[in-house]
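Model it.
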Amino acid sequence: MSVGRPGAADCPGGACAARAAMVGYRGSRRRVVVLGGGVSGTTVANALRRRRANLDVTLVDSHGDVVNQPTHLHIPFAVRLERARATGRLLRGGIRLVVDHAAGIDLDGRVVHLRAGTALPYDALVLATGARLDKRSLPGFREAAHNFHCHNAAERLRERLEDFAGGDLVVGAAAEIYRCPYAVPEFALLLDGWLRSRRLRGKTRLHVLLPEPLFATLGPLGEELERLLLEAGACVRAPWSIASMDPRARSLHAADGAEQPFDLLVLVPPHRGAPFLAGSSLVDSAGWVAVDPRTLRARGAAGVFALGDAARLPAPKLGSAAHFQAAVVVEQVLAELDGRPSGARYDGRARHLVHVGGGRALRMESTYAGFGRVRGPSLSAYVHKVAVERLFFEFAGSSLQHVV
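Modeled.
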């Protein structure tokens, strides 16, 4: 069975495996291929190498650098943090880094095919391929909306905010699944403070539109965020599902017929899984890898694991969740290589740290079993949040010796 574009892995499984074994093969060492060099991929690769120095670990990344995603939230407000660092600087010695795009996977032959033509055989495969922004799926998005989910977009939003003089400012999400489930209220609260510092708050009607109520996705943390938004004078509406937008008229249209005009629109784009996996047996219609939520093993694919933003899980797409998942994936991979069962299980754990403005933040932990207690808004939570943002690359390059 093959995954990817037609022709990426269209030879018989045995032939593919035999041919691929000649590419980058290092004797009889067990081979682990990690696709994706973000937080999830680098953490798993480093931890595997730390645990077993004799493993042949190859990490494939399309760009060759790790991006500090939390910095994008601050760029519109002209706050600068280290944005990216070369992946090679974050990897332990002995890990092979290949900068290329994955083109397909031969699941039967256990071979990954790269766009440049290289074939990488594996005994265990880890999919840490993240999420992609899918602006084209919502007509009018590029013309009408700004976002802060990549560096260039965040810079354009900063420039637009510099010219903003007041009016209807709408902050929302275009779909239900996206990185960082509290991104919209967090940005809106920081925006409220920025508007006040510019003496524009009295001239601005701040609207927050969400496809799901905050309490439905974030429990008590969502309730506290909604309380703070209302306290700040924002108009919060949820559920509010965007059906279409009119860039010329500068208006949003909801599925129920409601309309929302805007002078400035900041919208979290739709997200999808890695394009090369689209339509394969590994993923759902949105491209998320179907996994067992406890073991993180891909369903119907022996020796394949997925974590982080790439995986379809009833857990938030957060860096903290990826760290907890990485610990389980490492144990499961080692068990796979040893031919033994593993008792390692992911319990849905994630730690939420949310800026709310004024040098304060909220903190909460969640699992599959439910939500913990919300702490804050407090200075201590803010200090914790800032430390995580500034030490991002230390955590991204960790070997699971500590988890934020």
